[in-house]
Design a protein that fits this description.
It is a single chain. The protein is of the alpha+beta class. The protein has nine helices and twelve strands.
Length: 367
């Protein structure tokens, strides 16, 4: 039988997939009423001060503080000294959003709402649209916390519609008394594929105010090459990313992890567990995502090859910024097709460059 022609398809690097943009905004009523003070708390002098003190400081600043990895990745700092200038009339760091002509927050009133990347990222009740129509926009925010309350969303929405001013009260603060929240649908695992493999990790507990990242090795048990034509991934809420790795042909046998065992990369105190990281030097990126739902099919006649006796290392990362534990879980379906249906083979092109240096306090560009 004729072997299919190989077409190498470049995959995003794992590090690129781990980039996250962290932004926040709101949703609800469309009328502007006189400002009414809440019964408790500081008496802010403007709607913007209310947003900073009661929303950004509470839900966003924990990640979006100068020097943090989240702030560097998103190019967004939301502390009170710079938040307004960081948001207003500013192009987001997300390349897809830039291409769509988005601003973090515009000052054009109602027209700016539809082009607000901040609003897109936090509008939890509309997340089906967010993930279906804008999968390149990353995850919804706040990461690892419950969504903003319906009152906070309404307050932010009205502020944007009012032109996002820095001064004066332009939104009724009574909106903030609505503390109800969007409740995500129950996590339902997928049915296994008719032909292929279903892989899963979890459920596992993610402790309060903790990031849990782990690996979980699963041997496929395939005695010959298999060809994956479609991939489905479903993750519980709170996931930062998920990546599938295979091991290179040069991997020593003693570096292959024990199967079906969770290997945390940190202990409960946050210290790295070096023994659980040793195998990563032999990882070969296969596929990954930050989207909670993925259903990708290669073009007709194209499939991804997995060699005989393959094993896959599942890398899952969940973030919990709340005060209560929750469960993390990921389910993956790999749909396979017979060789006679494959005309071209898609194989990840794994590129690595670790010989350059980054001098301190300057920008370095490598190609």
């Amino acid at each position: 039988m004729r072997r299919p022609e190989t077409a190498r398809i470049a995959a995003l690097s794992a590090s690129a997939l781990c980039l996250v943009l962290i932004y926040f905004a709101g949703c609800s009523e469309d009328t502007v009423e006189p400002e009414l003070p809440l019964d408790t708390g500081p008496q802010e002098t403007s709607t913007w001060e209310v947003i900073q003190n009661r929303i950004l400081n509470e839900a966003c600043v924990g990640c979006h503080i100068s020097g943090s990895s989240f702030a560097r990745q998103s190019d967004l700092v939301l502390t009170s000294d710079v938040a307004y200038s960081q948001l207003i009339e500013r192009v987001p760091n997300n390349q897809a959003a830039r291409g769509d002509g988005m601003l973090l927050v515009g000052t054009g009133g109602l027209a700016s709402l539809a082009k607000s990347f901040l609003w897109e990222k936090i509008n939890a009740p509309n997340q089906e649209h967010f993930f279906a129509d804008h999968p390149q926009y990353g995850g919804m925010m706040p990461l690892g916390l419950p969504s903003l309350t319906n009152g906070e969303l309404a307050y932010l929405k009205q502020w944007i519609i009012a032109g996002a001013p820095a001064d004066n009260h332009v939104v009724d603060r009574e909106l903030l008394k609505d503390t109800s929240r969007y409740e995500p649908p129950e996590f339902l695992p997928m049915d296994p594929p008719e032909s292929g493999y279903q892989l899963s990790v979890g459920p596992f507990t993610v402790a309060p105010n903790y990031e849990r990242e782990l690996f979980y090795y699963v041997p496929l048990g395939n005695t010959e090459d298999v060809f994956v034509q479609r991939t489905e991934i479903r993750m519980r809420s709170g996931s930062h990313h998920f990546i599938l790795y295979r091991f290179g042909d040069d991997t020593p046998l003693d570096m292959i992890p024990d199967p079906n065992v969770i290997r945390d990369i940190r202990d409960p105190s946050g210290e790295y567990i070096v023994d659980n990281l040793l195998a990563t030097q032999y990882h070969r990126f296969l596929l990954g995502t930050q989207w909670p739902l993925v259903n990708y099919t290669f073009p007709t006649g194209v499939a991804m090859r997995l060699p005989a006796d393959s094993g896959l290392d599942l890398n899952s990362h969940f973030v919990n910024r709340s005060n209560t534990p929750f469960d993390g879980e990921v389910v993956v379906n790999l749909h396979t097709v017979p060789l006679e249906q494959v005309q071209r083979v898609a194989e990840p092109l794994f590129l690595n460059h670790n010989t350059f240096e980054l001098p301190p306090k300057q920008v370095t560009t490598e190609s």
